[in-house]
Specification:
about 400 residues; 2 domains; seven-stranded mixed sheet
């Protein structure tokens, strides 16, 4: 008799991305980053930085400060949404002996309200508040709308027989006889018990909805947070309207089947994020959660590409990924940017004793501690104003075609 192999369903998760007590302004972060490079053995005048940021204007300050502290304008590794173009590793490697890559997704922050996701743009007239990262917001908007639509059209109630029910529109249910092809799908298996045949059966139906008795496990979950079931007048759906599930529709209770909306570079973002979309859309600030999730997924992808890139072999390289928090003009102070480190990958050309320390990536709190050990004073920083003045004073060349 042949043994039947049951392939397990393996869940992929992202690690918790902390912000509290791990935020540093860019004018402090970049000198610390430069001094960390020197500690690793990178040499003044030989370091070629590269950045992978969004193209938004509010990412300009980090680029200016990279130029100031590393003494050269950074190479551009960036694509839409803060993705990194791994096909540019080779060209980047040809521009310096010691290499730095700084990658960040970004999100706006309103200091007055403490909310994430928008940014005030003074170059726009009238109401100049817009989303902070147009590309990430565009990718998740249709999913956010589907989630908000569903949570107001899925109901909880207790019927006259004392059964605790969940009532859902047919369009949210992946029926065995008529599976959903795309869109929001209620994960009934996490709410309702299956019978002895492995079938989930409704207790009643209406023209557009199904009613299911929730499992004892799900009921205890709601009881634990003090949820009060609303009683209905009868056993039918029409007499047991209940109340919408609202924010009790947590990320483990639904998923998305979707034909991808994006194309070109953007489809990589959507493909990366789809399995994490329930967590993103149900977060307090979806714009923050999508930025955190995107950079975590990017870090794993980019580290793998760096390890396989032949042109980076035999060179010092530091790759740092994190989150840029964009702060608009506030109390008459100019716009600024804060950085939250996520993780770092280090490879050293000599395989020196230090390399053993960096066999594995530096995780968030370890990376933050490493940076905080460094001084915020950079003796090698460039005086950009002086350098521009020197360019203006330089003799004018007589440049000709032949």
């Amino acid at each position: 008799m042949l043994n039947k192999y049951h392939k397990p369903y393996i869940v992929r998760q992202v690690a918790p991305f902390k912000i509290d007590d791990l935020v540093m302004p860019y004018p402090e972060f970049l000198p610390r980053l430069y001094n960390f490079c020197l500690e690793l053995g990178f040499r003044k005048g030989h370091i070629m930085p590269s950045r992978a940021f969004c193209s938004d204007e509010n990412q300009g300050l980090p680029i200016i400060l990279l130029t100031k502290h590393f003494g050269t304008f950074p190479f551009n590794h960036g694509r839409v949404g803060g993705l990194l173009a791994i096909g540019r590793h080779g060209p980047h490697s040809h521009h310096g002996d010691d290499l730095v890559i700084l990658q960040a997704s970004h999100v706006g922050y309103d200091p007055d309200s403490g909310r994430y996701g928008t940014y005030r743009r003074p170059q726009l007239s009238g109401d100049n508040v817009s989303v902070s990262c147009g590309k990430l917001t565009h990718v998740i908007t249709s999913y956010v709308n589907q989630y908000l639509f569903a949570r107001e059209r899925i109901f909880l109630c207790r019927d006259v027989e004392g059964r605790c029910l969940i009532i859902a529109k047919n369009v949210f249910i992946d029926f065995g006889s008529r599976p959903l092809e795309k869109g929001f799908v209620l994960k009934l298996s996490n709410i309702v018990d299956q019978d002895s045949q492995g079938i989930i059966r409704p207790v009643s139906t209406s023209s557009t909805s199904q009613s299911y008795e929730v499992s004892e496990r799900f009921k205890k979950r709601l009881d634990k947070i003090g949820y009060q079931w609303k009683d209905g007048a009868g056993g039918s759906l029409g007499n047991c309207p209940g109340q919408s599930i609202g924010n009790l529709l947590t990320s483990d209770l639904f998923y998305f089947k979707e034909d991808f909306h994006e194309n070109g570079d953007s489809i990589l973002l959507e493909k990366n994020l789809l399995e994490f979309m329930p967590d993103i859309v149900s977060a307090k600030y979806p714009a923050l959660r999508v930025a955190q999730t995107s950079i975590q997924l990017e870090f794993a992808r980019v580290v793998q590409s760096i390890r396989q890139e032949k042109s980076y072999q035999g060179k010092n390289l530091l790759y740092v990924a994190g989150l840029n928090i964009d702060i608009p003009e506030y109390q008459k102070f100019p716009p600024t940017t804060y950085f939250v480190p996520w993780a770092a990958h280090v490879q050293l050309k000599d395989g020196a004793p230090l390399e053993l320390e960096y066999t594995h990536p530096l995780e968030q709190e370890e990376l933050f501690a490493k940076l905080m050990e460094q001084s915020t004073y950079n003796p090698d920083q460039s005086d950009l104003k002086q350098n521009i003045q020197r360019m203006l004073q330089a003799p004018r060349l007589d440049i000709k075609e032949f």
